[in-house]
């Protein structure tokens, strides 16, 4: 096994953060521009450098040297988005591109040099193609290893095979890109990469640690790290366009089934399966329709076709929801249909019930509920998800059928008799089990009286004025209270006055066998939940 690094071709775009600001935000890169991060210059334009602006300067000092300086905040996401077309242009000529950072990408030089007529010819063609495709100026360096190729790209140099250690030896230690290490080496009298590479490897490891040992290998030209080749994302979206607008449900369902089978076959070819499907349609009048279907399993070809058919049926018929209120039917037929695999995972089979029944029943229920969603919309079928909280209303979150069942608050309460789950945060003040069977969406106003007919009040110190004896809900007849427990205080978010809640809760049993959860807040009694 050889320790010689592979020949690497690296494309470098000078001042890329400045160019990215011009591409995305329209900031003219021909003027004096500086990109700042943490109040220091991280990149600047050629015009700004001519005015004395340098990397590492503070904002005020940079503006003092160049009063007309345009300041742009550093945005790595913007740099990456703007660099994607450049990488795509390089991939049109060569395969196996690694994005080193926004503004620099590398590729093994062996392949391009063979089919493009040599290393220098390959560098010239790539630079020209990027300039014509993306209108971006770039430089290419070729050397043994990614590190040396990046330094060679600064001067557009092709280092001959085996000449990388000599090329690196004359460069200053600042070329390592570690300012703290470079400053320490200069104070120790080590000024070039050749001086640093001449030090014994064991002494470098003992003095500078693991990172120092890695940079020592780079300085000696022993960068044997293989390229992390980027795999271009596959375009999995399938689209069908129709010359004649489709306005009948049967014709749309037929077209949707063919498109669903095409999508499923394409996903299977990549070893993937769909868990979240986006359906888009465009009508002849330009109206755009979009819906996302989720599934907690894997969508088969039949399942994809069913959801496409249900969704097209809901769109084209304009089915009304509860109370006769629904979406309006499109004003024209569909001319374009697109299926987007919004969520994909590696293909894996689902495990049905042990005897085959559980999985089939679950699939039938899922199909029925999904059908209702296709007609009435995703919010028409909701399921409850338990989470953390102190009151029953806080612990329950309603999510559309098929969505991810994530609790609104961490810490799902354990079931009666079940020990607390490790790692979940405690909820002091949570109601003791059993949990109420019915949680009222809107609490009912109530009045609690004692045996003498006087209203029962709870003081700020949680002192009950008298034992509760009768309960009156709204305008109903008073009901006798046969048993009660409490109060349990809750004082939440006292630091935020707009969200603060201070209340006390009671459990009461009535003469007719009903058990209720009562809450008193600011002197007002409310019925919050009903026990079974």
Automatic annotation (TrEMBL):
The UniProt keyword set, sorted, is: DNA damage
Which InterPro entries does the record cross-reference, listed alphabetically? DNA/RNA_pol_sf, Rev_trsase/Diguanyl_cyclase, SulA_CellDiv_inhibitor, UmuC
Q: Where is the UmuC domain?
A: 32-157
- Region feature (Disordered): 401-434
- Amino acid composition bias (Pro residues), ranges on this chain: 410-434
- In terms of superkingdom, the source organism counts as Bacteria
Q: Which family does it belong to?
A: Belongs to the DNA polymerase type-Y family.
Question: This protein is called what?
Answer: DNA polymerase Y family protein
């Amino acid at each position: 096994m050889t320790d010689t690094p592979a020949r690497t071709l690296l494309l470098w775009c000078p001042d890329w953060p400045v160019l990215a600001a011009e591409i995305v935000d329209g900031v003219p890169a021909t003027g004096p521009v500086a990109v700042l991060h943490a109040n220091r210059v991280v990149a600047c334009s050629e015009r700004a450098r001519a005015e004395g602006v340098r990397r590492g300067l503070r904002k005020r000092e940079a503006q003092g040297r160049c009063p007309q300086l345009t300041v742009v905040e550093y945005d790595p996401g913007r740099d990456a988005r703007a660099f994607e077309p450049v990488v795509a242009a390089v991939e049109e000529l060569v395969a196996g591109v690694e994005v080193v950072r926004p503004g620099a990408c590398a590729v093994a030089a062996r392949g391009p040099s063979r089919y493009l007529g040599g290393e220098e010819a390959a560098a010239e063609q790539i630079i020209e193609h990027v300039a014509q495709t993306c209108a971006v100026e770039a430089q290419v360096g070729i050397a043994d290893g990614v590190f040396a190729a990046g330094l060679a790209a600064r001067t557009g140099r092709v280092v001959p095979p085996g000449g990388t250690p000599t090329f690196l030896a004359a460069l200053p230690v600042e070329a390592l890109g570690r300012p703290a290490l470079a400053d320490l080496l200069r104070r120790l009298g080590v000024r070039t990469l050749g001086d640093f590479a001449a030090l014994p490897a064991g002494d470098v490891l003992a003095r500078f640690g693991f990172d120092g040992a890695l940079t020592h290998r780079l300085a000696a030209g022993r960068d044997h790290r293989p390229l992390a080749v980027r795999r271009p994302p596959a375009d999995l979206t399938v689209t069908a366009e129709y010359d004649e607008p489709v306005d009948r449900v049967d014709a749309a369902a037929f077209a949707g089934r063919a498109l669903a089978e095409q999508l499923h076959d394409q996903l299977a070819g990549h070893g993937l399966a769909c868990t979240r499907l986006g359906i888009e349609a465009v009508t002849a009048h330009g109206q755009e329709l979009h819906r996302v279907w989720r599934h907690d399993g894997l969508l088969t070809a039949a399942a994809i076709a069913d959801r496409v058919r249900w969704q097209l049926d809901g769109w084209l018929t304009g089915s009304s929801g509860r109370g006769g209120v629904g979406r309006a039917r499109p004003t024209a037929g569909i001319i374009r249909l697109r299926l987007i695999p919004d969520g994909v995972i590696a293909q894996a089979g689902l495990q049905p019930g042990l005897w085959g029944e559980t999985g089939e029943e679950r699939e039938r229920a899922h199909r029925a509920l999904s059908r209702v969603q296709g007609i009435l919309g995703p919010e028409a079928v909701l399921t409850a998800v338990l989470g953390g909280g102190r009151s029953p209303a806080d612990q329950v979150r309603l999510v559309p059928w098929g969505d991810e069942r994530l609790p609104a608050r961490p810490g799902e309460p354990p079931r009666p008799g079940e020990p607390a789950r490790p790692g979940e945060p405690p909820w002091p003040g949570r109601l003791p089990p059993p949990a109420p069977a019915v949680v009222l969406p809107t609490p009912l106003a109530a009045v609690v009286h004692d045996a003498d007919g006087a209203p029962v009040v709870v003081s700020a110190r949680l002192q009950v004025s008298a034992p509760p004896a009768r309960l009156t809900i709204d305008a109903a007849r008073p009901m006798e209270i046969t048993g009660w427990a409490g109060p349990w205080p809750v004082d939440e978010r006292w630091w935020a006055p707009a969200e603060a809640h201070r209340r006390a809760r009671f459990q009461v049993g009535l003469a007719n066998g009903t058990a209720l959860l009562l809450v008193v807040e600011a002197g007002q009694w409310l019925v919050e939940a009903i026990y079974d």
